[in-house]
Design a protein that fits this description.
Number of helices of chain A: 4
Strand order of the largest sheet of chain B: 1-2-8-4-5
Number of strands of chain B: 9
Shape of chain B: extended
Shape of chain A: globular
Distance between the termini of chain A: 60 Å
Strand order of the largest sheet of chain A: 1-2-3-9-5-6
Strand content of chain B: 25-35%
Order of helices and strands of chain A: HHHEEHEEEEEEEE
Radius of gyration of chain A: 29 Å
Strand content of chain A: 15-25%
Radius of gyration of chain B: 23 Å
Helix content of chain A: 25-40%
Oligomer: heterodimer
Structural class of chain B: alpha+beta
Largest sheet of chain A: 6 strands, antiparallel
Largest sheet of chain B: 5 strands, antiparallel
Order of helices and strands of chain B: HHEEEEEEHEEHE
């Protein structure tokens, strides 16, 4: 825009706004003494009204879409069931699913378990709250809520399996090696370990998924305790 | 215009922007299930035709159909379109392994789910229909006869049934696949009077 045109639009903007009375000075706020001063400022900030609407609409749309994008990226979770490092969303498997979870699932294509099928939990941190790091070993042990079967799977934060030479992507409750008293111990590590070894492959980041199939728990009424779920304890780090 | 005026005019613009942003945000969240191009239905319809049970490929690194799949599951899917008639699911369960079913709308919402524990005398018998189809069926029926099937009214015309069968050991995968595909799925046409 040329300087002359700019000057013209500025002047026009002032004229239009005064004609229409878009910004009449509030009488109780302006004294005659300040009129000159006011005109100087209003000439600087007044633009044609259409322009203002357009800017508000554009800025609003951009902000709204940015909030949607950020919200879906971060995975806002309402109605989540939390127990220690584990988070589950039982309502995602029913018609009561909230609109944010619906939008998120539609975008990712994920198919959550139906509420009568079971419930899946995700852990992005260890039991102390520190983010899971592939340079460290982790020990997953403790108890699992009463359920017909459960599986523990290692995936990338976006939900994809992590390749490894052992072709081991997870464990089911049936195949796991247990101590004589029935407790179990799974080691998540880069290097091979005796017992239940869940390999990390060459992933840069990972999360753990615990799925309870045909569980006896009713998540609508039961408050899940952290001790009812497996502990994730950090071991040695490289 | 003094400082207070400028503050209020700024506040007005700010309020306008926040209002528009709020409307756009909620509209985009609500529209996402209809607009997302790679939702689960789109991915599944590339693999299966309506009215038949199709085994999905095993989840392997780089070959997943959807994220957060359980590699221990054998999965099968049956897409349905109720505009031509109800969908009939039938299975005789033989082995006691875990089998779960979820009934979903086109946008992936689960409207019903069950496990093999809900089977009556080892049989799963389900009909998915629209509300008018259910009325038509009930009209032609003898009310004294006990119902031998589970009837579900689907919220949408289109959707899919996802079947999960757990391979408790890697060696049981073939059995799990057989269990998942043992459920037959067929579109029916309603008999007209």
């Amino acid at each position: 825009m040329s300087a002359a045109k700019w000057e013209e639009s500025r002047v026009r903007g002032e004229v239009i706004s005064h004609d229409v009375g878009a910004n009449p000075p509030a009488p109780h706020l302006t004294s005659p003494r300040k009129r000159g001063e006011e005109r100087l400022i209003s000439r600087k900030i007044d633009m044609p009204n259409l322009f203002k609407f357009l800017i508000v609409a554009l800025a609003g749309t951009a902000l709204g879409l940015a909030v949607t994008y950020e919200g879906l990226q971060r995975g806002l979770a309402f109605n989540a069931v939390k127990a220690g490092p584990w988070t589950g969303a039982p309502k995602n498997g029913s018609l009561d699913i909230d609109p944010y979870a619906r939008a998120m699932l539609a975008r990712s294509g994920e198919l959550p378990l139906g509420i009568a099928e079971g419930l899946s939990f995700i852990a992005r941190t260890d039991s102390s709250g520190a983010v899971l790091r592939p340079r460290c070993d982790y020990d997953v042990s403790g108890s699992v809520p009463p359920t017909r079967y459960w599986t523990l799977t290692l995936v990338s934060p976006r939900g994809f399996l992590v390749d490894n030479p052992a072709k081991r992507f997870g464990f089911t409750s049936a195949e796991i090696v247990r101590a004589p008293d029935g407790t179990f111990d799974i080691t998540v590590a880069r290097q091979a370990r005796p017992g239940n070894w869940l390999p990390l492959g060459n992933t840069q980041s990972f999360v753990l998924m615990l799925r309870l199939y045909d569980t006896l728990l009713d998540f609508g009424t039961t408050k899940l305790d952290a001790t009812a779920m497996p502990k994730i304890v950090k071991g040695r780090c490289e | 215009m003094n400082l207070t005026d400028r503050f209020f005019s700024f506040l007005l613009y700010f309020a306008g922007i926040v209002l528009v942003a709020g409307v756009v945000h909620f509209a985009s969240i609500l529209a996402m299930p209809e607009l997302a191009p790679h939702d689960s239905y789109a991915r599944l319809s590339a693999l299966a035709k309506p009215g038949q049970m199709v085994l999905l490929p095993t989840a392997l690194p780089g070959h997943e159909i959807t994220p957060f799949e359980d590699p221990a599951l054998a999965q099968a899917v049956c897409l349905y379109d109720l505009s031509s008639g109800p969908l009939h699911l039938h299975a005789e369960l033989e082995d006691p392994g875990l089998l779960t079913l979820s009934f979903r709308t086109r946008s992936g919402r689960v409207f019903y789910s069950m496990t093999d524990q809900a089977a009556l005398h080892g049989t799963i018998e389900v009909r998915i229909m629209t509300a008018p189809q259910l009325e038509a069926v009930e009209e032609n029926e003898d009310e004294d006869e006990p119902l031998q099937e589970l009837r579900l009214v689907a919220p949408d015309m289109k959707g899919f049934v996802l079947v999960n069968a757990l391979a408790a050991f890697p060696s049981e995968r073939a059995e799990a696949e057989a269990r998942a595909t043992s459920i037959s799925c067929s579109s029916e046409t309603l008999a007209r009077e």
